[in-house]
Amino acid sequence: MAAIEILDLEKSYLVGFWRKRPKLALRSLRLTIEEGEVFGFLGPNGAGKTTTLKLLMGLVFPTAGSARILGLDMDDPRVKSQIGFLPEQPYFYDHLTARELLNYYGQLSGVPAKGRAARVEQMLARVGLSDSAGMQLRKFSKGMLQRLGLAQAILHDPKLVFLDEPMSGLDPMGRREVRDMIQELRHEGKTVFFSTHILSDAEALCDRVGIIHQGELRGVGAVAEVTSQKQGKVEIVFCAQAVPAGLTSLGAEARVSGDMVNAVLPEEQQDAALEVLRRERLKLISLTPVRRSLEEYYIQKLRPTEGQREREEDRKGVGA
Amino acid sequence: MTATRRANLVAAAALVFSMAGAIATLHAIDHTRRASAAQEALYVRSSKVLRRMSLGYTGLLADIYWTRAVQYFGERHHHGSRDFRLLAPLLEVTTELDPRLLPAYQFGANFLAPKPPNGAGLPGSALFLMKYGIEHNPGQWRLYYNLGFLYYTEFKDYAKAADAFAQGAKLPVTNEYMPILAARMAQHAGEFDTARMLWRMTYESTKDPQIRDNAVQHLLALQVDEDVTRLEQVVEKYREQTGRLPASMGDLERAGFIHGTPADPKGRPYKLMPDGRIEVQDPESIFFITKGLPPGAAPPQPLHQIEPESR
Amino acid sequence: MNSGRRNANAGNPNAGNANARIGYIAFNTFREAVRDRVLYNLIAFALLLSGASILVGEISIDVERLVVVNLGLTAVSLFGVVIAIFIGIGLVSKEIDKRTLYTVLSRPVRRWEFVVGKFFGLTGTLVVNTVLMAIGVLLALLYVAHRFEKMDAWVLVALYFIVLQFLIVCALALFFSSFSTPLMSAVFTFALFVIGSLAEDLRGFARITQGVGGWIATAVAYLVPNFSALNVISQVAHGDAVPGRLILYNTLYALLYSAMAISGAVLIFQRRDLK
Question: Given CB atoms, is B1 within the 8 Å cutoff of chain A?
Fold first, then answer.
């Protein structure tokens, strides 16, 4: 069974003060996420990631389309007790303590009173907030709030977790912790749907990614597949102060950094290049086939295709 | 969606039900509290306290009290009440809050002095109010007019009335009738004309429907009084010439004393009584008349059923 | 709603029902509000009031009770309304503004449950506030009069009416927050409080006005909250009794009007996009 099945979900907001006109925030999104998958939703700021999440959470209502979550209609009240949600830059009640907040959310999610307190402590420990559990949230730093946000999202042991920009605003250590936590969730068999604009996080964590831009899904692919595609090029790294003349004539793009040279050239020139190095008595450090990075995939998908460009014109026409 | 729709339906039903209920309850509250808003005037007789309480918004508060006064009188008058004891404090509070609220003085001059049910029966309070008004608005001829009017109608003090009209006539902005009224008062002559002039001025100088209606009734009554007086004079002349009383209006017409059949302002012909008196056909139809009534009849008042005062 | 109660948490047999969730939200609202600075304002106010009444007692002997009741109850009413607007709007608009609502509504909480729970929580806060302020007034009264008299019972009735006022103010604050910005909600609510305090006079105006204007005026006069009947301060300051029927009607009215505002808030909030 698919964990999330988005069927042509569409959302436009009315903008403008006097004469309201619709502005498309999400164009007919169709996407399926399997159970147990870690799915990364990538796109620049304002691409429609948060809108998608809000639609799925029932915080805003779709203009068209529908979605099924865990086999149920997304409006079904039963859905809500099986999902967890971390909003972007979460903010909670200033005058509650972390412990009180989690207890309150536990009550609302229907966590049985019997094990609730223990569960709350367990979650606090898991996100490393045990020491601050009795502190009022207005004294919390941004990073602490983010961790608390994670704790509340997984508090009621949901099958499916939605995380909106879970790594933003965190220091490197905090980001590492969040990554580890998402990995743990994967091992627990949870489905994780998270949005980010940080590609390295997505590359390290996701099974699959979707790329969204200007409210439009531009591509979906498995990370392993995307990054294993060969480009027909090799990268040679060797010790040298300058680029040997023989290499440039082979069509290599070379870069000198310190006493190392990094050269990329077509695969069929590989042997010729190695011959050049041997001749020059240069020390070879590595030779690897060039793979496409997620970044390249991302950039490529963001570039509008012909059809999209036309639609772009249409949109501008409508907007004017 | 069904759960949401059901919640919406319940909310919509609750909205309609509670709105209807709230309005119905409001009606009940108004019944329980009738005039208790006006009652407050008794609590805050000190204008100083009230001025302080109003936090500087005395104009607004004066308007509120003014409305309360008009409504208080109008409602009680309409229900035939004879108890207008709050009218004076209401008008006093109003004018203390805003001494330049001229309609309040006019209202007071017309409805404070007359005896119930046409007014509160407090000519003293009315006089006090006019003097207070003149003190704060010495340039307003209308207040002198109201004062003279009061002296004339309620106190029958022609000297003081003449004085008030004369003072009003001297103001830079005044009314052309003021000196005439002053003269009339001094001569103490032409009762009907003077009274008619007074009521007409009252009518013309206000937009208040209650005051206007009152003035119209008085003007009609004056017409009747004057007609009856004149007709009775004609009858007397007829008797002097013929040595007997006329048997009908026809006798008077044939003798050339009158033309046509004289009728009251409502179009009903006057009745010639066997003893030579003139009577109106329906004494109840014209208020305030003093002549043309059956012997011993009280002047009719603008009210037919007088309810016992409950609150 | 019943179906929700049955299905709220299929995987969890112990899932709470709507009433329980409303209770949790109400309690949390109360806790959040009580920990805010509002309480400190109240304490300051109570001290100020006691000080003022002592001063007044020294100035004039005869009217001291009158002034303490008038001053005290007026202050309770005005301060309370400001507090009611402040927390009523703060606690709802702020949840939308600061997105705390996201983490609540992504749980098995229906939007109407949130609105209703919020209202109960706010009401509870206001009742506690009023009780604290009332203690201040009663202490001041005791200080100038040395003992309580029978007519002081009407002061309690006046205080009860003031709580009813807060109930309506709170419901209105909630209503306006359901579709407007915090600032505009505060302005609207306060404006309605002022207009509503003149409601009886407004109905008086409406009765005098004729024609279409009269119809409109009447409709407006009956739709704005009627705070004037809930204000019996000067009456009880003079020791006058409050008719039992008025107590009943006012209670009914406050409940119905609040229900009306809350229903409106629910209807709007149910379909609002939380941007």
Answer: yes
